[in-house]
Structures are given as structure tokens and as C-alpha cells.
């Protein structure tokens, strides 16, 4: 995953709007353009939502701890387990964790999703592997 700022999506939406309306004043709100066709919208994709979905796919592999290749690649220097950083907020205490560009993007997106969907996340994930070193997995 690549880190994309909010300003990137704002600029992308502006350019798409200019293209759709041919540089004239928009006659419909942009959110209506992005709304589903079944709801009366025009079905224009929400690129920020697609971006978050792609990163969430990586997070799924991160949480499940099944892809040994991914865990070794991204967790080569971890002193604590993955879930420690996701649930307990240890990333602020261990600054080395956020220096890795992939982990930083994943953790920032996770924090954003956790704020809005925390009650929908299964509770068994929170303490599953909090203190296990990921490279020690068989």
C-alpha cells in the first residue's frame, strides 16, 4: 500500500467533476454522482473508499497471521506481536514500528477504521496474539 493523503482524493474529485461537467457549474452534488444507481445516483466510484478497501485487504492478512511470507517481510524487526500494535496502541511507544512505510500506512488506516467500526470488530481479535513475536511462528 502507498500512503495517499486526503488532499489527493480532493484533487481527484475536483478533476473528475471538471471533466463530467465540462468546466461548467455542477448541477448535481458530487455525493449524488457517487451514490448507487439503485438509490438514484449515477454510480461514480468513490476512490477513497476503494483505497481504504484495498488497505483493509492487507489488514485482513495482518490480523489473521496466516501469510508467513507477509509477516516475515513486514515484521522483520518487531519486538512485540502485530496485535499489540493494533489494539494496545504500542506503536507510539515503539517508534521503530512506524518507520516502516507499509506498516505506517496500514496502522493509520486501521486507526481510522477502528474509530468508526470498533463495535463491529470481533472481540476475540483484540487479545489473540498480543505478546507473540511474529517471526517465531511455525
TrEMBL record:
It comes from the Eukaryota. This is Uncharacterized protein. It comes from Micrurus spixii.
Amino acid at each position: 500500500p502507498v500512503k495517499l493523503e486526503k488532499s489527493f482524493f480532493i484533487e481527484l474529485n475536483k478533476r473528475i467533476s471538471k471533466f463530467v461537467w465540462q468546466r461548467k457549474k455542477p448541477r448535481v452534488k458530487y455525493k449524488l454522482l457517487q451514490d448507487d444507481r439503485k438509490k438514484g445516483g449515477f454510480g461514480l466510484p468513490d476512490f477513497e473508499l476503494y483505497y481504504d478497501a484495498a488497505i483493509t485487504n492487507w489488514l485482513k492478512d495482518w490480523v489473521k497471521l496466516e501469510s508467513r511470507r507477509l509477516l516475515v517481510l513486514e515484521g522483520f524487526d518487531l519486538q512485540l506481536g502485530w496485535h499489540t500494535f493494533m489494539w494496545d496502541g504500542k506503536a507510539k511507544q515503539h517508534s521503530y514500528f512506524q518507520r516502516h512505510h507499509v506498516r505506517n500506512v496500514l496502522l493509520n488506516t486501521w486507526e481510522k477504521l477502528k474509530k468508526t467500526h470498533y463495535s463491529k470488530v470481533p472481540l476475540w481479535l483484540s487479545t489473540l496474539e498480543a505478546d507473540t513475536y511474529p517471526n517465531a511462528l511455525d
